[in-house]
Specification:
six-stranded parallel sheet; 2 domains; alpha/beta; Dehydroquinate synthase-like, alpha domain; homodimer; Rossmann fold; globular
């Protein structure tokens, strides 16, 4: 096992009706005014906005709201929200929505206490030294943003989809009520399943130092996602499956899947970020296209682990059978596995490669091979 | 899944040489003087004391030391240390040792800021409202105390072995260097294995609400303990196995094994606490006697889970086969499974039952049946 530091100070409030206490949770931190960030107006129709408003008022917390965050969130929106946060002198950011809203909120929390150009933090030109406290009610289980210090934002002008990380942008308190996630469409459910699995497999397959404890831990998350996705496609109201799916999503990217491992990278995410920055495809859908293609190209570098994956997750005996089983499962649940499902073909491959943020030790030739596997 | 709050603010510094930074870690909290609590003088012989002293000095942290904590630590020792901590006006407690030293240190941290009788906190007569910050270097993987808010202490006069819990006594920073744990004797290695497995199975078998995610998570810890214990018996210097064993121990009692479950209890621990309070047997050794006996009595209450355990952990097909496989494994590694191995027999059973802290919904008749299984 490799040396590591593990620290995750986010408090998770998980379960039914927990969102009704959001005002109480925020008041524990002495906060008197928040910026409430959200996406579509759906939260006004389904009553969540009212619930939040009521809880904030009961706890004498003022708020101003900022809606309109889109998926694959863009830096332009974040800039507008930072302006509002500064003008309104809010003391914290409250995110109500999915990972896009939360990632935007984290960035707003940084920008609200800085006079620097916000994109410079994503370019590594500026370091995060302070941020407003962040609270959230997460309405989609996928990104794991509710229990980590990452935020991913797209620069719509430069077509860069980059991320920031800081211990200062872990949410103080994340509310995860599986019931709030049951209205997610079937499409977004299966894209989320793909996203969670992608978070799991990057470290699992690429780490130079890996432990069996860790492999078993990750396989348990993947098996949970596979089992509960199938239940939820049939019955979106299954609370128990919805809960396990949500908790698996949180654990897939809260730092626990890679502790003690070393030398891992995120090639699938890097390739997908180029894809979704260029063509605005849903992140999880892009990942289910990239993963089997990357796995077919990569598996010989770590065949022992691919055989373990095949056996433990799908009861198969060879690396290739495991990869095909995953691809078949993606097809079965209805998340894309081919570029043509996005109306993309070989003509787009060079553009995707050109737009990659970094090469992650993969040469252009190899990237072509990977993307050719996805045709 | 049941509603839950999850919050674990302990920072873990895991790996080789991490103890050399202990002064730096403590100085991050602005602490200028600590009480260094330890057990036997072994840490002076093996150089750990010197390493700690050097790091504290380099970071201008004064210290006074308090040695002599024994396993199954007693409240008398804790009282002496509290007196010293108050007289010396220390600002934090630094524990260097195993779970007994750390549990004592947590109690000292509470007592140092209180004028109440310290045992009253264990009796529930006093509530913990403040505590000095706690830091530790853990030299034995077993209790999980390095990442939780529990402390277990024995009142040597009343023969009560009770615990306290508070979010205020999570260690601020825990140093886990597997290399420091390799000098643990073979006996204590196998007792530790038993202790970790006991932490896992209590919730796993007794919870009224259980999730498959959780069951898989727990099984991965148990399987890791079984695999790495066997490696470490053969080769105590196997760093990788030592690391996995240590990290499994931490995760077995840091709150992650029971999140989302409900209605669980700790019958094996309660029975064992009576046993070790009366006869001072090593905690893990007591547990490996109690567990198979309790399992044979209990399994029909939750046969589905016992069959799952048999299958997933030992590749067996029935509840009884799983229990026998665990008992056989305890025998194989050399941790006791019968009361007679402590020179106890049927004459002691009523004394053990009489000394139980609470009945945990188990009647006297049933306790007799359980303990008879252990003869």
């Amino acid at each position: 096992m490799e040396n590591f530091s593990f620290y995750n100070p986010t408090r998770v409030e998980f379960g039914k009706d927990k969102e009704k206490n959001i005002g109480k949770y925020i008041s524990e931190f002495g906060v008197k005014k928040v910026l409430l960030v959200y996406g579509s107006e759906r939260i006004k129709k389904d009553g969540l906005f009212d619930t939040v408003e009521k809880s904030l008022k009961e706890n004498s917390i003022e708020f101003v709201s900022f809606g309109g965050v889109i998926s694959n969130p863009i830096i332009k929106t974040v800039r507008e929200a930072i302006k509002m946060a500064k003008e309104q002198k809010v003391e914290a950011i409250l995110s109500v929505g999915g990972g896009s809203v939360l990632d935007s909120s984290k960035t707003i929390a940084v920008g609200s206490l800085s006079e620097c150009e916000i994109w410079d933090f994503f370019l590594g030109k500026e370091q995060i030294t302070k941020a407003l406290p962040i609270f959230d009610i997460i309405t989609l289980a996928a990104t794991g943003s509710e229990m980590n210090g990452y935020a991913v934002i797209t620069n719509e002008k430069t077509k860069q989809k980059f991320n920031i990380w800081s211990p200062l942008i872990y949410p103080k308190i994340s509310v995860i009520n599986p019931e709030l996630q049951k209205s997610v469409s079937k499409d977004y459910l299966v894209y989320s399943a793909s996203d969670i699995i992608a978070h799991c497999i990057e470290g699992y397959f690429t780490a130079k130092i890996q432990s069996q404890y860790n492999s078993g831990y990750v396989e348990n998350i993947i098996k949970t996602v596979i089992r509960t996705t199938e239940i939820l496609i049939e019955n979106p109201d299954d609370y128990s499956a919805r809960g396990e799916f949500a908790w698996a999503a949180t654990n897939a990217l809260n730092g626990t899947t890679t502790v003690g491992t070393a030398g891992f990278s995120f090639p699938n995410h890097m390739i997908e970020h180029s894809l979704s920055a260029l063509y605005n495809v849903p992140h999880g859908a892009g990942l289910s296209v990239v993963m089997p293609a990357w796995m077919k190209w990569y598996y010989k570098n770590n065949e022992v682990q691919f055989i373990r994956f095949a056996k433990e997750v799908f009861g198969k005996n060879s690396a290739i059978e495991g990869i095909v089983a995953l691809e078949n499962w993606f097809n079965k649940i209805g998340t894309p596995t081919r570029l043509k499902q996005f109306d993309l073909d070989e003509k787009n491959i060079s553009e995707i490669i050109k737009n990659l943020s970094f090469q992650e030790e993969i040469s252009k030739d190899d990237l072509e091979k990977i993307l050719n596997n996805a045709l």
